[in-house]
Amino acid sequence: MDDVPGNAARYRTGLAVRRSVLGDPHVDRAEIAATDFDQPFQELITEAAWGTVWARPGFSKRERSIVTLALLAALGHDEEVAMHVRATANTGASRSDICEAFLHVAIYAGVPAANRAFKIAKEVFSEMDGGKAVHAR
């Protein structure tokens, strides 16, 4: 990836931020899976999402994580919700933060979207906890 066109500094920053949020294994899998067809897309998201938006100083990674989860849940992007729930291990967003974000989703984007997001988060938490079920009250 040393021959990345465009803003090489933004790409390098984005790659570092992407790795810090999603983890090296996830980013390594994405890079290995990239083909000539989708390489421009990988470069775009690394530069724009990670090197521009996520690298901005205005929000902490925790705050960006919460906002991102709410948006992804509201839009019904299930795989991305799961990925970003996993990323909270690196961003500092707590399970309580995620719950609050999804409660906002219920009010502003609809109960079905929030219901699905809660279900996905519980599945991811179970995986993260080594297969243990999320504790019921």
Q: What's the topology here?
A:
Elements: H1 8-22, H2 24-33, H3 39-53, H4 61-75, H5 78-91, H6 95-108, H7 111-128
Helix pairs in contact: 1-2, 1-3, 4-5, 4-6, 5-7, 6-7
Explain what you see.
The protein is mainly α and 137 residues long. It folds into 2 domains: 56 residues, no CATH class; 79 residues, AhpD-like. It is globular. The mean pLDDT is 93.
CATH topology of the largest domain: AhpD-like
Number of strands: 0
Can you identify the CATH superfamily of the largest domain? AhpD-like
Q: List the uncertain runs.
A: none
Helix content: over 70%
Q: Which CATH class of the largest domain?
A: Mainly Alpha
Structural class assignment: mainly alpha
Average pLDDT number: 93
Overall morphology: globular
- Alpha-carbon distance between the two ends: 48 Å
Q: Can you give me a brief rundown of this structure?
A:
With 137 residues, this protein is mainly α. It has helices at 8-22, 24-33, 39-53, 61-75, 78-91, 95-108, 111-128.
